[in-house]
C-alpha cells in the first residue's frame, strides 16, 4: 500500500521532469567550481533540487485541485481522481520542503538562509495564474533558482554569471510554458484564469514564446564570453537553438497536437545537451590548465 502511494505521488508530480532544472544546477556547480565540484556538494545540491521541485509540484497539485477537477484534460490527476488524499499530499509537501532546507544547511550558511525564499517563490507560483498573465515568467523564476542556488552552494556568494544563466533559464521556461498553456486556452478563458494565450490569443502567444527563446539563446552566447567557455559549449548552444527552432515549427496555432513533444521531450533535451557540453568544456579547460 505504501509503495503504491509513493508511486502515485511520483507520477502526480511528474518526478522525471526534474530533468528540466537539475541539469542547469549541475552545470552551474561545475562553472562555480571551475572544474569538478566536491562529491558532498553535488550530493546535497541534487537533494536540494529534488526537494524543491517535489515540494513545488505537490503544492501545485494541492492548490489546483479544484481547477484540475473541472478541466477535462486534468481530471485524471491523482487528487481529482481520488487516488490520493489532500492530507497525504500535504505531508509530502512538508517533507520535500524539509529536504530542501536540510540540504541547504549542509551546503553553507547563505544557502540555508535563502532556502525559505526559494520555498516562497516556488510555492507562490501556484496562485499566480489567478491574477496575472505573467505566471509563465514566475514559473521561469522558480526554475532559475536552480543555477543560482547551485552557484551559491559552491561559492557561498552571488555572481553575475549564475544570474545571467538564471535569467536564461527563466526566459526559456516561460517560453515553453506559454506553448503548453495554449492547449488550455478555452478552459482558462472560461474559468477566468490568466495566461499569455488568454490575454493575446494563441497565435500572438506563440510569437511571444519564440521571442523569449531568441533572447534565451542570445544570453547563452553572452555567458560563453563571460565564463570563457569555448567551442564545445558553443556547439551545445547551437544544438539548443536548433531544438528550439524545431519546437516552434511543430506547434502551430491551428494544430496543437504536438505540444507534449515540444514541452517534454525537446526541452528535456535542451537542458541535458547544454549541461553535458558545458561540463565537457569546463573539464577540458581544467585539464589543459598549467596548474591542473
Give the N-terminus to C-terminus distance in angstroms.
Answer: 52 Å
Low-confidence stretches: none
Beta fraction of the residues?
under 5%
Q: What gyration radius follows from the Cα positions, in whole Å?
A: 19 Å
Question: Topology, pairings included?
Answer:
Layout: H1 2-12, H2 22-33, H3 39-63, H4 65-70, H5 86-107, H6 109-128, H7 135-155, H8 160-181, H9 185-191, H10 196-200, H11 202-227, H12 231-250, H13 259-288
Short descriptors:
mainly alpha; globular
Task: Describe this structure in a few short sentences.
The chain is built from 13 helices and no strands.
Please give a structural write-up.
The protein has one domain (2-288): UbiA prenyltransferase (Tetracycline Repressor, domain 2), CATH 1.10.357.140. The longest helix is centred in the last third of the chain and has 30 residues, at 259-288. Helix 2 (22-33) runs antiparallel to helix 3, helix 7 (135-155) packs antiparallel against helix 8 (160-181) and helix 8 packs antiparallel against helix 11 (202-227). Helix content is 78%, strand content 0%. It is mainly α and 292 residues long. The chain has helices at residues 2-12, 22-33, 39-63, 65-70, 86-107, 109-128, 135-155, 160-181, 185-191, 196-200, 202-227, 231-250, 259-288.
